[in-house]
Amino acid sequence: MKTKNLASSILTSVFLGLVSMGSALAYESCHKSKWGPNDQLGALNNITQDNIIAASKLIKQGKKMAMAIETNTKTPAFPPRTYSMTIVRPGQENGQTLGNTKLSYHDDILQSWVGIGTQLDGLGHIGIDNVFYNCTPGIEVTGVSGLKKFGIETFPGVATRAVLLDMTALMGKDIIPEGTPFNQPEIEAALKRQGNMKINKGDVVIFYTGWHKLLGVDDKRNGAAHPGLGVQGARYLANLGVAMIGSDTWGLEVVPFENEGQVFHVHQILLAEFGVFILENVVAQQAIKDGVYEGMITVGQHRTTGSVQAIVNPIFVY
Amino acid sequence: MKTKNLASSILTSVFLGLVSMGSALAYESCHKSKWGPNDQLGALNNITQDNIIAASKLIKQGKKMAMAIETNTKTPAFPPRTYSMTIVRPGQENGQTLGNTKLSYHDDILQSWVGIGTQLDGLGHIGIDNVFYNCTPGIEVTGVSGLKKFGIETFPGVATRAVLLDMTALMGKDIIPEGTPFNQPEIEAALKRQGNMKINKGDVVIFYTGWHKLLGVDDKRNGAAHPGLGVQGARYLANLGVAMIGSDTWGLEVVPFENEGQVFHVHQILLAEFGVFILENVVAQQAIKDGVYEGMITVGQHRTTGSVQAIVNPIFVY
Amino acid sequence: MKTKNLASSILTSVFLGLVSMGSALAYESCHKSKWGPNDQLGALNNITQDNIIAASKLIKQGKKMAMAIETNTKTPAFPPRTYSMTIVRPGQENGQTLGNTKLSYHDDILQSWVGIGTQLDGLGHIGIDNVFYNCTPGIEVTGVSGLKKFGIETFPGVATRAVLLDMTALMGKDIIPEGTPFNQPEIEAALKRQGNMKINKGDVVIFYTGWHKLLGVDDKRNGAAHPGLGVQGARYLANLGVAMIGSDTWGLEVVPFENEGQVFHVHQILLAEFGVFILENVVAQQAIKDGVYEGMITVGQHRTTGSVQAIVNPIFVY
Amino acid sequence: MKTKNLASSILTSVFLGLVSMGSALAYESCHKSKWGPNDQLGALNNITQDNIIAASKLIKQGKKMAMAIETNTKTPAFPPRTYSMTIVRPGQENGQTLGNTKLSYHDDILQSWVGIGTQLDGLGHIGIDNVFYNCTPGIEVTGVSGLKKFGIETFPGVATRAVLLDMTALMGKDIIPEGTPFNQPEIEAALKRQGNMKINKGDVVIFYTGWHKLLGVDDKRNGAAHPGLGVQGARYLANLGVAMIGSDTWGLEVVPFENEGQVFHVHQILLAEFGVFILENVVAQQAIKDGVYEGMITVGQHRTTGSVQAIVNPIFVY
Q1: B171: distance to nearest CA of chain A, Å?
Q2: Per-residue pLDDT averaged across B160-169, rounded?
Q3: Mapping DSSP to helix (H, G, I), strand (E, B) and coil, where does residue A126 land?
Q4: If you count residue pairs, one on B and one on D, with CB atoms under 8 Å apart, how many are there?
Q5: Do D144 and A109 touch (CB under 8 A)?
């Protein structure tokens, strides 16, 4: 899978990066949370009861859209992420059953990197020069058996309005070409095309690029790059107070990066600077086909203590 | 690799071997799905667009309740289930960062049995004498690297009305004693106490027993038994057409079982006979405290192909 | 945790369930160990102190040959076996070190099917109709978290004479073609060619076929089949009292099998009938090149309780 | 288990250690291998064909001693190391068998930290201020999916003379008390007591302290500390040219450390400075009981590419 090339280029930049040690600068330039030194919710703080009530009013057709792709050994994964599942039937050797009820059962064991498939990036996922969200030094975050801070168990679950941005209709392409950045002009154009929609504080914004159509069809192209959010667009949305941002791509932000060497800068802006949670590989195709661009979204995660990310299936109701 | 062919030929002989198996009785007594031979959704078929619209009208306060407990090494687990999480920082040895943006990042690897914490039981979890939902023989379900049928990836996500049954208020106990069965009389009494509520086709029913309060406080008592749904109550609710049933206990059904030796008979009735999905360790305390007994529930799962279960965090909006 | 009690009661019912199983025939036709009902060593019982002393006299050049190939993600593996390794540096985030000694350290986590690479097959690996070595029913062997009997921890370690059979020189081929069976005539011819060697009771016999040369070169051909021991040859060697038999192939016995449908019959004869341990992917190239066909072999395994197999590196000294 | 306290104290020292960043000094003071810049064998280079022949002459009784303890969930492990084993029977649901031969089989999946039980420490395990053996910077060693250098697959296997040092007989104690250091005086005294033995270049030295007798008996005491090699003793043996050093304790070197804060300094001296491989939890009780103090030892490892350590079972023949 072409992501290996992506990985190689990163490994190269590792050696370049080696010259820059010491984090003094980083600590000066880090961003304190406006919600206080103990805040772990970030932009989710922008979701109010009014947001939820307003979102509920968007449920008109009574339809539900599950936004997850499948996670398995064939799902394109950022190297060296791997996936393995094992099914067992404890105590049922020889086909015997358990008890008078002749119980038969399966159990399952997951041995997998979490960041495969449709995923939620927690605030502990990405930092800037070993400083994470809310000016938290890496030493207070990293733990070999689970994050000490910003573990995915702190994600409170989300229910709010989601705005879907159909970039394919805007740009008249079934699949937006790799490397296409989405910044303020593209975002505003998409909103205008969708009936002069507005993005509100506390909303979740989901980009629809058609890129998910490459899954299993052209994994090599899929893994090598994709269209996505740009640096300016990230700051623009974050300043609007959005709670989460997602896309139907594996990395949300545009790849190749707008500026060479600025490795996952959009991730840094959203997670480390603004505390905006990220959704990847979330597919809005069904609603888009129905011509629906807003609804209520809910996100609930496997609440595994200390996880960095979660494999999720956001539910969009409209 | 060609060894796969070798394996396939072996798998073929497995199917030949099937003729020599005897669960004739089981096949006669199994329950065909009313939704056809290919149905994998079971009682979720009862959820209509009207259910979803009606559920949305229950969102009045604009509150959201995440219903999951945490999953970690301390979470009581049915033996021999174990949990392990590993955090890594690829390419960041010596504290170096990646690229000009000085990227730092964490990744996570989950090595865990899935059925730990707040979980969704898929239709492939439990069978009767090696026959699973919709009269499906185990041979068509079991796969060592993932279920061949009823894998959790087939769970379509749920949005519908949830009815919370506060058994603690009904019985005047902060924590309902272990071994207390909930059958039609208890269920109807709880509904009556909560303002003559009705359970509708397509609803999710959640029992609140206070049992979750034992977590980390008295794990020994918690693990040994708990109150829960009885055999008659399971059939009663299933016949009402409920889509899912859950509780704030690790096993939903009453333990010890009502009849000794009838191992997880309620699980068999719900999953194998009626196709009613099960939620375990789902906690409704917040809404109960608010005196709210109905709202919209959404359930989205990690869509890991072939999984039997999922660790979930249902979102209840009211 | 008390749930263990719950589990135990279920396991009890498993044994009750056993009566309803039918492998009567298998039990009649099974082979009792000549070393008694509790024997778990099988043909290793044939190794005496005289064997070891005699083997030590074969050490003439003072050379050592490690016989293992590498186990990693590229090693051909019988499906669905997979391999994964993770390296961690606990407590060393930001590149900090531990203590005044500025300790830096790596640790490693192995998540792998055991039967990949150079492996030792324990007596619990293969059975006949759910009956394993020494007429042991599967129910007494299988345990979901480790074999209850014949776990690799019972392997006592081996030091004895090893006889290398160079089938490539015998047949005048650099790589013996797939499907070539080795039975008594081929074995005796190889011994005769190597100076009328004799195989003694307690010896380890290793076939050299050159097949290992396909590793990483033609994995497809390698995985599809290989030359190896035949059914008659297996009984012949077992009756000579050899302690172990190995080869430089992934399955030791000839593939395709001599008789279609007789799946791994040689494994059954060696492991289940005679208690002869099996070594796979053991490479004797160095000694063969030196024209040496006998020496002292030692086999020590990772002594992981309940493992079926072990990834080993036999040491041949000559 | 008390090792948790040990871990805590180490975590404390992590924070202390944090003040000292930068490796310039380390690079100046690192030790180049006398066997060249590409050497990965270290002191194993001292083993010659003469060593092996001489060792073979020590095989007199024809006895074999396997030196490994078992590795399982009960084996004391340095935090946060964990162990898990899963047994599967692919394609055998309902008790069916494979083919006409009615094949039944078990397979096993190991999910475990490698450093549990009887282990071989590779040269990549321990470094000094991020510099490893042969002045190799950590950046050239660490790889998240396997060490880039000094992976255990590079261990060539060993056959040579082993000298057993019975410290219990020397000190007249059945179990040597924790914190007892072994330095030149103790080592020479033990050799003298054992008939004025000499340690030769290329030998493996094994300390017998009786500490293994605490396994499963007093794991708390076992995990908290133990007797072992001191800093001076380590340099003394390394300068004698020994190939490997082992003991029947989990950490070889004396714990608590001779000087507080000098975390695993003996490991650093042996692995990073001299390239002397380490064996832990190797038990020589059988030979000691027989009054035998020298013999031939062989060490073969699971040749898993990129592993830091290996779980081994050294075979001692005498």
Answers
A1: 30
A2: 98
A3: strand
A4: 54
A5: no
